[in-house]
Design a protein that fits this description.
0% strand; flat; mainly alpha
């Protein structure tokens, strides 16, 4: 179980690193725009992301 969790975490790091590696200036602009978003909007985006991931995981298992 721990090995699978560690593998999933490593894949997450790889996937999250692709955009800044390929498009650093666009990534910088996106981060600057994210700094302007309200806490409520960030929470809604985080909740949506978690629910989407959970739904996909449920469908795959």
């Amino acid at each position: 179980m721990w090995e699978a969790l560690l593998q999933a975490f490593c894949l997450l790091l790889i996937i999250e690193g692709v955009i800044p590696f390929l498009y650093p200036s666009k990534w910088r602009r996106l981060v600057a725009q994210l700094a302007l978003i309200t806490d409520h909007q960030l929470r809604v985006m985080g909740l949506f992301s978690m629910l989407l991931g959970l739904s996909i995981l449920y469908l795959l298992t």
